[in-house]
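Pilot study result, target chain (39 residues):
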Amino acid sequence: MLPQEKETIRQAFALLTLHSRVRRVNMIVGHFLFLSVGI
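Predicted structure:
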């Protein structure tokens, strides 16, 4: 495997994990907003 290929894969993986983390945070924030509106 070429070094630049490894770097590209590493960046893509980092982007993917970042995206899923952001989505999870948004879900938690949305859940708290929903609870505060419901009360």
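One observation from the pilot: Residues 31 and 37 are 10 Å apart (CA to CA). A full batch analysis is planned for the follow-on phase.
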